[in-house]
Amino acid sequence: MRILLGMAFGHHGKPVDAGSNKRPSPGFPEDRQAAWEYTCEVASWLRPQWPEQAQDKGWCKHFKKLTWHLAGFAVLADCLGSDQSVFPYQATPQALDDYWQSKALPQAERALEKLGFGKPPTPSSFPGVRSFFGFDPTPLQQWAQDLTWQPGPQLFVLEDVTGAGKTEAAMTLVHRLLENGQAQGVYFGLPTMATSNAMYERVANTYRRWYDGEQVPQSGAGPRGRVISNRALFSP
Asked: Can you give the pTM of this predicted structure?
């Protein structure tokens, strides 16, 4: 409990000094009573599940290292929860469990959608190499287009001569993976920044058409070039 409290109480940017004996201002008795009642009510319906390993000193030592990540998550949650355009103040009394279901959770979904982390874009159907890229397919691209699709994990290794259209063949397979719900994005791993940027320029006007309508997938840059994904940013 002390580890969790230290993690959460440092959400304004500075970790709590675990060795300090300083106590905060006691405040008014009614404030302390309200805080206690709130804590008990939340605990009664959230019902936290304490891990059995919590009594093990070795487990707690490893858990302390993870609290840096959890503290960052708490800072992010605090910032998002302070957005009054999504979480407006409410003066009308309401039971906490009812507020959680009818207000807090739907508002949290809107907060994520506002940041672009809502429902992922809907992949479009691959129309064929000629329709999508605007040129006749090479034999390799024709193979990628006509390949009988199978469920489950996929591994494709494309090897051909220069000019065989390997990049477009790979993008065809990616499009079909997205279309069949077997991928959430694409990562281009290339050896240098120059080749990464050249690849980005080549596909920048293509990957947006992997999705229906005006839906826009997320894209970003890694330390050696650029990364395209519809859900997250990964670095090489």
From this structure: 0.51
